[in-house]
Amino acid sequence: MAKDHAACCSTAKKNIFKNRLFIVSCLSILLLLASLFISSLVPFRQAFISYLKVIWWAVLLGLFLGGVIDHYIPREYISKVLSRRSPLTIFNAVLLGFLMSACSHGILALSMQLHKKGASNPSVVSFLLASPWANIPITMMLVAFFGLKGLFIVIAALAIAVNTGFIFIFLDKKGLIERNKNSVEVSRDFSVLSDIKARMKNYRFSLFGLSADLKGVIRGAVALSDMILWWIIIGMLIASIAGAYIPTHFFHRFMGPTFLGLLVTLALATAIEVCSEGSSPLAFEIYRQTGALGNSFVFLMAGVATDYTEIGLLWANVGKRTALWLPVVVVPQVVLIGYLSNIFLK
Questions:
Q1: Contact indicator for 168, 328 with CB cutoff of 8 Å
Q2: How far apart are CA 315 and CA 20, in angstroms?
Q3: pTM of the model
Q4: How many secondary structure helices (H) and strands (E) does the chain include?
Q5: d(Cα 51, Cα 233) in Å, to the nearest integer?
């Protein structure tokens, strides 16, 4: 028995040292500790902690909601609403994204959980695009910053999410992206509402049941964190380096209302996109300094389409072709709308 226990512990240790979340977390901690002794790393530490303060609640909320979905929502529900190749599926995904109140990194957890539960790849992409910049709290924030032009940003974000979903349905039909193997066949007669009513009728409230439910939610959240959290930390590391060491005057000099300014904004959005709540003030600062609404729009939207965190998660969990098609389909739409905005919405 002692030998078996020792072998089990040894295997667990080996698994921990191979775990990507453990490796990335240790790297982050080492860099933060090193910054206490190396002065050149202090700006990195300050930027990293600043980003962490902005997004920690959204990531935890996303993981918690993902755990709730994993425990409470049967795969048949998601397959019924979000797995069919139809325009209604895309509108359902975009509406769901609009109703969610989490930033881009919180939405990553939810989108991966929806995929795990059977949502089609086109609907996952539409959900991922719609929620960060078109959810209700961010709509209020953008209107506060930009006035009525903030509504334009939200409407344009929704339009891109819907249009991208339609394009991905076409790619799906042509076999150019992966199919979600988690989807299940659901009868056309299956009613989500009727099934919910039946489950509620049979549910018996008890402390034991609540305890079991809580454990189920936590299990789902932990499994989800192991899947996505290491990508988010990598994104924060790179964003912190960019935010700490790219001079501020670079933004003002090279991000004017020109096509070159749009391209520079696109490149920076790829590097420093962290969170919708954190990016919104910076997007407004770009608009205030340059008067280029299109650049602000590109900064907000392109981050989701080109950010290494989103693409890496799609690559690892949804499919390589889906991940590669995301920037190919979305970036031209974002740049075009940004360019036209700089011309007509000065």
A1: no
A2: 15
A3: 0.72
A4: 17, 0
A5: 11
Nearest alpha carbon to residue 59 among 235, 317, 308, 245: 235
Residues contacting residue 306 through CB under 8 Å, at least 6 positions apart: 266, 269, 270, 273, 327, 331
CA pair distance 309, 306, nearest whole angstrom: 9
Rounded to whole angstroms, what are the CA distances from 292 to 154, 256, 331? 17, 6, 18
Q: How far is CA 61 from CA 103, 146, 339, in A?
A: 10, 27, 35
Q: How far apart are CA 37 and CA 194, in angstroms?
A: 62
Using the predicted structure, report yes or no on whether residue 125 has a pLDDT greater than 70: yes
Residues 6 or more apart in contact with residue 55 via CB below 8 angstroms: 103, 105, 106, 232, 236, 274, 275, 277, 278
Query: What pLDDT, in 10s, does the model give residues 129-171?
Result: 887 666 665 667 677 778 888 889 889 989 999 999 999 999 9
Q: Residues 277-324: pLDDT tens digits?
A: 556 666 776 787 778 899 889 888 877 788 777 888 889 889 999 999
CB 328 within 8 Å of CB 320 = no
Alpha-carbon distance values, 263 to 244, 268, 331, 337 (Å): 21, 9, 11, 13
Query: What is the per-residue pLDDT across 55-110, written as a single tens digit (0 to 9) for each?
Result: 777 678 777 877 887 788 776 776 677 777 788 889 988 887 776 655 566 677 77
